[in-house]
Amino acid sequence: MAEITAVETYSFVPDDLRLAERRRGISAFVRTKNGADFLRQTILSHAPFVDEIVAVYNQCTDTTESVLAGLQDELGPRKLKLFHYLPRVHPPGSRDHAAEPGNSPHSVVNYSNFALSRTTHAIVVKLDDDHIAFERGLQPMVDRLRREGLAPGRMNCFSGLNLVRDEDGAVGIHVDTPFSGNGDIGFFAMTPDAYFVHDRRFEDFRKYHFRRVFTGFAYWHMKYLKSGLGFANYEIDSGGNRRFAKKERHFHRRRDVATIPEIAAAMPRLRASLMRLVPFDKWALIGNRALAMADGAVAEADLADLVARYGLGSVLTDGAVPDAA
């Protein structure tokens, strides 16, 4: 029988982070709504790298709850902690989200802070329900964290690659937005400033309180391989989410797919080299990421291994060469 805690109402205050009680180690937290497509693969691929995973689910009409319950049976309730957050949460980008106070039980800001507050270790990382670990990149990051720790005020950021299918169903990289994670995701040491705040567009992690450094590629982003191409949870059809309706239209207009070598070859080395010297951490991060991709941080064989391991079909072998961006 799974150990699932139901949360009927909650309003975040920073003291809920319990900084003084946190133990050495690494916590991951995941928030999910109808995430059954890749939730199992996400959690099992990351479980070896962290000491606990806090999973919080909300408004699920698919098999998310049973998937999580089964995973807890495999991993144990100390490794995978489950919470059913009962209040309706307004999707990011919606008018309802924009109008909802950040500490309201119905705000995705409050929902996110609840998940964060249930972690118990000194180093924390956000995990989305469609991130499958890229072990070759993630392993050295975690090894270094466990060996050297992480100074408060520093965020070891990482990125993933956005996978998409071409018209024949082969898996490649989305040309228009090849990368996921632009300085908003990574390992951070818990501090009094480490929580989410309200932005009219979305829940905003207070990442600007950290010095963000790019440390590599750590996951495959499966968003565009999900049911509804990853847009199903934003309530676009109701007309109340113009932000993500625009993103969905843009995606359908520009669905070009490329191979990893083509993406690597398109990286603008000169501009990336200059960007990494700019004293603005996000620009430096983007520059370092482009150079890492150009230098082969992710290889075609890595994607082939992922596709074969998870039965995703075939890998794109001859796509259109994208323009340098």
Largest sheet: 12 strands, mixed
Strand content: 15-25%
Radius of gyration: 19 Å
State the end-to-end CA separation: 51 Å
**Total helical segments:** 10
Report the count of strand segments: 14
Helix content: 25-40%
Structural class: alpha/beta
Order of helices and strands: EEHEHEHHEEHEEEEEEEHEHHHH
Quick gist of this model?
By secondary structure, the chain is an alpha/beta fold. The chain contains ten helices and 14 strands. A hairpin with a 4-residue loop joins strand 11 and strand 12 (203-205).
Can you describe this structure?
It is a single chain. The protein has 325 residues and is α/β, with parallel strands linked by helices. The protein is 30% helix and 23% strand. It is built from ten helices and 14 strands. The strands form two sheets. Strands 1, 2, 3, 4, 5, 6, 7, 8, 9, 10, 13 and 14 form a twelve-stranded mixed beta sheet that branches. α1 runs parallel beside α2 and α8 (269-275) runs antiparallel to α9 (281-294). The radius of gyration is 19 Å and the shape is globular. The termini are far apart. Mean pLDDT is 95; it is low at 319-325.
